Structures are given as structure tokens and as C-alpha cells.
Amino acid sequence: MKRASLLAAAAFFASSIMASAQAAEPLKIGFISTLSGPGAALGIDLVDGFKLGIEHSGGTLGGRAVELITGDDQLKPDVGRQLAERMIQRDKVDLIAGVVFSNVMMAVAKPIFDSKTFMLSLNAGPSDLAGKRCSPYFFNVAWQNDQSHEAMGKHVKDKGYKRVYLMAPNYPAGKDALTGFKRYYSGGEIIGEVYTAINQPDYAAELAQLRAAKPDAVYIFYPGGMGVNFIKQYAQAGLKTEVPLFGPSFSFDETILPATGDAALGVMNTGFWSPDLPNPQNAKFVKAFTAKYSRPPSPFAAQAYDGALLLDSAISAVGGKVSDQDRFRAALRAAKFDSVRGPFAFNNNHFPIQNFYLREVIKDDTGRMTNRLVGTVFARHMDAYHDQCKMK
């Protein structure tokens, strides 16, 4: 009996030493982002927001030093998949984070889930991963692709616009975007639904078709460089004074506005966050990001910052032992952190339940283009696919 007790004590002591050793090792995070090409500004904000979140967590996540292994997917799904496989097989990362574009996310999902590696999406939220293909290893700390567009669909409907023209790039997030808009724009007429090539620079032909259709309003989803080009060309064609333009925050955010100038002024847009949201965490984040990077933060930086705070809370809750996957998953689900966006909780499919706001593009007192909070469209909004997720 005494020998058995000694053996049990020795085993407990050994396991404690192993757990402590693991907690002392740097946490390896594979960070996949778009860092070149027209979408680079989005990906850079994702990286910078995440790094600021680590800094505000004491330079660690859950008390563990962080080794960030960053890779540029170049907005190419095959490159993204190669990065994910390399990070898992060669770099032996503890988890993967990032991913801006949904076509890249759909390419990296299978190797990540097959290896039972946790994936924290800081942006892309394709409908497939919110519904039937939801995974216990996938968490999205940003939004489901449809949601910001659903909010604008409701706003445009409530404002009485009867005939609306829709445009987006031809990839999963573009299709989810227009699906989301139509979901809440019930009763109105969609007189055009156009999908353009991803990273298309010239929209002259599409704008001619749009003008000929004579819509009451236009709704677009064009992030990054695509948004800059479209918004400027829309104004140059004289359409801005003819037909009201609407979009999600990602088409009128701080990665785009410096390049669009007055072409975007006055446009109403919807999203989960605004730089002037009145909560202490947001005020701290906006001030610190602007000071550190000499530019205002975008929604991409905000959600990545939240992602770091989420990880810090979850890793702390498991004493740094992320290899205890069931406990770590439960700690992530609990989402015990103060979000820059206000209320935040995870749904059953590991996508956020959160507010969506109406914003207006304005110039601030310094003449800088930014967004002003107008009101709340949805409170604690759930995505449309969570009931298709059978994950327990």
C-alpha cells in the first residue's frame, strides 16, 4: 500500500514537472495572412493588431512567451495550404491564427482540422465552416461572412429603397456577402447581382451596366485595393451624386479611406466595430494602435487584437497547457475577455454573437477620413448557419 502511494505520488510529481516545462516553453503560433498584393493592408493590420494584443497582455499569452511564425499566403489558396502544412509538420506549431480571405481559409481548413490543430480565424468566416462543416478545432473571433451585409440589408430596406443593384468579387466571401444582404432585404427588388474577378482593377464596363439599370441604391462588398478602385471609379463616373452607395465596414474602413478621399465621404456602412465605440477597452486600443503604428486602426486590427486577448484568457485558464485540448476548447468557448466591440460570446458553432452597427464616413477635426457611429442595427446577432452545426 505504501509502495503504491509512493508510485502514485511520483507519477503526479512527474506529470506536474512535465506540465510546468510545457508551460515554460514558448507558445508557437503559425500566423497566416495576406501580406503582399492589393489585400496586403488588411493582412498587415491583422498582424499588427494581434501583436498589440500580445503587448497589452504583458508580452505573453497566458503567461507563455510567444513565438510568432508568420507566412504570406499572397491571396493564393494553394500557397495558404502549403503554409499551413509546413507550420504543422515542420514548425510543430501549437495553433494557427490569422487568414484574411475566405478562399484561403477553405484551402487551409482540411489540413488544419485533420491534424487536430486549433485554428483561430481573425477575419475569414465562410458559411461552410459556420454550418455543416463546423469543427471543434475552429474558432472565429471576427464574424460570419454574411452578418455585416445582413445589417445593411435591413437598413436599406428600412429606408425604403425599392430597387437595389449588388456587386461583389467572385469568391466565397463575396457570395456570402450578397446572400446576407438579400436575407434581410426582403420585399425589395434586386435588379442586378454582379460578381467580378477577385483583385479586378477596372470596373468601367460594370459601372456602365449599373448606370443603365437605373437602381435606387447600390450595395457593394470590395475589401482592400478592390474597394479603393471601385469607390474612386464610382465617384469619377458621376454615380455618387446619382445613386446612393452602401457597403459593409470592410469596404469603407481605415485601410481604404486614406486612398479614396472624398469619394467615400458620407457613405453609410455596417460592421461589428467602430473606432468611436464608447467602451474603455476600445478607447485604450485605438489610442495605443495609433501611437504605435502612426495610423488609425481598421476593423481588421480590432478583431485581431481581440483574438490575442481571447487567447490570453484561455491559455491562462488552462495554466498554459494548450495540449489539454478539451480544457483549452472550453476556455476558448467561455470567451472571458473584454472586447473592443462591446458584447461578445461564442455561439454553438464557435462564431461570435455580437452587435452590428451603422456608421457614416466623415472627416474628423484634423481633416482625416474616418467613421462615425450612427446607431445599432442588430443587438447580440447570431449567424444564419449555427443551427446547421451539429457540434456538441
Please count the helical segments.
13
What is the second-level CATH architecture of the largest domain? 3-Layer(aba) Sandwich
Strand content: 15-25%
Mean pLDDT across the residues is 94
Q: Report helical residue fraction.
A: 40-55%
Order of helices and strands: HEHEHEHEHEHEHEHEHEHEHHHEEE
- Please tell me what the overall shape is: globular
Q: State the fourth-level CATH superfamily of the largest domain.
A: Response regulator
* N-to-C span: 41 Å
CATH fold group of the largest domain: Rossmann fold
Low-confidence stretches: 6-12, 14-22
How many structurally independent domains?
2
Largest sheet: 8 strands, mixed
Strand runs, count: 13
SS content category: alpha/beta
Structure description:
- By secondary structure, this protein is an alpha/beta fold.
- The protein folds into 2 domains: 9-145 and 277-354, Rossmann fold (3-Layer(aba) Sandwich), CATH 3.40.50; 147-272 and 357-381, 3-Layer(aba) Sandwich (Rossmann fold), CATH 3.40.50.2300.
- The chain is 42% helix and 20% strand.
- The protein has 13 helices and 13 strands.
- Strand 6 (163-169), helix 7 (172-184) and strand 7 (189-196) form a beta-alpha-beta unit.
- Helix 6 runs parallel beside helix 7 and helix 12 packs across helix 13 (325-334).
- The longest helix has 23 residues, at 2-24.
- The model is unreliable at 6-12 and 14-22 (pLDDT under 50).
